[in-house]
Specification:
The protein is mainly beta. It has three helices and 17 strands. The strands form three sheets. Strands 1, 2, 3, 4, 5, 6, 9, 10, 11, 12 and 13 form an eleven-stranded antiparallel sheet that branches. Strands 14-15-16-17 form a four-stranded antiparallel sheet, with no helix packed on it. Strands 7-8 form a two-stranded antiparallel sheet. A hairpin with a 7-residue loop joins β1 and β2. The longest helix has 7 residues. The two termini are about 45 Å apart. About 20% of the residues are buried.
Length: about 300
């Protein structure tokens, strides 16, 4: 595992995150919202962006709406913490069953002082000890599943416990196959009985790389007379969404609208929240011209 983690290439993938909530343990979870993001694992760190954006932000908290639960350990950081930092205490291997097949299970424990993991809620934040299990293929030693728990949360936060379970798959990144996350589920129990559940799916793995070109002397670019761009005409007519925003939509998804003059405007879903039986959806248009009114009326119904 140490060799595997050190050989992980810089990569990007798409994540679809669904967040659920219930007020009591004996009622069903209700979907709160859905998000789609791009995550880049580079230089041993995770960075995030909205799908299609040109750059990645440093932290997931910089992008997401202020409500809801997030975690940034399941993509690569938990595995790096366990197998590169030499801070975990492991039990001996035990035989187990994974998806009907024999597998190997290791139990681990990381003290709070070495975990590098903190719980934050209600303005309080404190480091937490980690416990859990890792399951491996008995012949290839590919990691198959990882469960990371906080069973003894610090008293300074209102969280009673957490459990994060990640399953793994083989995916091609560039020219090489690696074992990478496929799904992840995070369950958090508050001390007042409220439970939050995040369900994440990972796909579209790609190699993450950059390049630069230097040019020295002997090249001249002809100077062309600049022609000012025509001023955008104000569009006072109605505009329509080019496609429905459906129940499968997610925060971060792009959309386009067409104005009465045929102009195309692009935007992104900024927020989605369930309000009773309906959804509150906040849309942001990124290329409105001065003097142009917002082409979607407040209260517009979506399907």
């Amino acid at each position: 595992m140490h060799d595997y983690v050190t050989r992980l290439p810089d990569y990007t993938c798409r994540i679809t995150l669904e967040r659920f909530k219930r007020l009591k343990a004996n009622v069903a979870f209700e979907l709160s919202d859905r998000l789609r993001l791009e995550v880049a694992y580079t230089g041993g760190q995770e960075m995030y962006s909205w799908p299609g954006d040109a750059r990645f932000e440093a932290g997931i908290e910089d992008l997401l709406p202020g409500h809801g639960m997030v975690s940034n350990g399941s993509y690569a950081l938990h595995v790096k913490n366990l197998f590169l930092r030499d801070v975990a205490e492991f039990s001996g291997p035990a035989t187990d069953i994974c998806d009907g097949q024999t597998c190997l299970r290791l139990e681990f424990l990381i003290p709070a002082v070495n975990s590098g993991y903190a719980l934050s809620a209600g303005g309080g934040s404190a480091p937490a000890p980690l416990a859990g299990f890792a399951w491996f293929h008995p012949e290839t030693f590919d990691i198959q599943r990882l469960e990371v728990r906080v069973d003894q949360p610090p008293r300074g936060v209102r969280i009673a416990s957490t459990r994060e379970t990640t399953t793994y798959q083989r995916a091609r990144i560039g020219d090489v196959e690696f074992v990478v996350p496929a799904t992840s589920e995070l369950l958090l129990r508050d001390r007042n009985g409220v439970e939050l559940w995040n369900r994440t799916r990972f796909d579209q793995y790609r190699r993450y790389a950059g390049s630069a070109t230097l040019t020295f002397g002997g090249m001249e670019t002809p100077v062309q007379s600049a022609t000012p761009a025509p001023a955008a005409a104000s569009d006072k007519g109605p505009a329509t969404l080019d496609a429905d925003i459906t129940e499968e939509a997610a925060i971060g998804d792009p959309f386009t609208v067409t104005t009465s003059t045929g102009a195309k405007l692009t935007g992104r879903i900024e927020d989605m929240r369930r309000t009773g039986n309906a959804w509150f959806v906040e849309l942001k248009l990124g290329n409105l011209h001065k003097g142009q009114r917002l082409p979607i009326k407040r209260g517009t119904r979506i399907r």
